[in-house]
Design brief:
- The chain is mainly alpha-helical.
- Helices cover 55% and strands 0% of the residues.
- The radius of gyration is 18 Å and the shape is elongated.
- Keywords: Membrane, Transmembrane, Transmembrane helix.
- The chain crosses the membrane at residues 25-47.
């Protein structure tokens, strides 16, 4: 549905790739919006390693990843957001959440 709208706005044929059209129009894909939103959810609501103990560690800026026994828990947006945030490079982790 989103690709169809972008193809109409960019006047592309159905066979044409719309990857560049997304960039030119400044539109995020649905997957990109989901990733951004779950990372921002994690930043606003979850505990980081530095909040659990007061020692300075290498991974103090990362989120605490609780252990789980089910695949359903791993699919939760909060868990996915923490996992995705922990995968970001340090330069992005040090940015303010307003900039993200």
């Amino acid at each position: 549905m989103q690709k169809r709208a972008v193809r109409i706005m960019a006047d592309l044929n159905p066979q044409d790739s719309c990857r560049d059209a997304f960039k030119d129009l400044g539109v995020l894909t649905v997957v990109s919006i989901y990733i951004t939103e779950v990372i921002l959810l994690a930043i606003r609501n979850l505990l980081r390693n530095r909040d659990i103990h007061k020692r300075e560690t290498r991974h103090g800026n990362d989120f605490n990843m609780p252990t789980h026994k089910s695949a359903l828990f791993a699919k939760k947006p909060s868990y996915a957001g923490a996992r995705l945030y922990n995968m970001l490079p340090e330069e992005l982790k040090n940015l303010d959440s307003q900039v993200l």
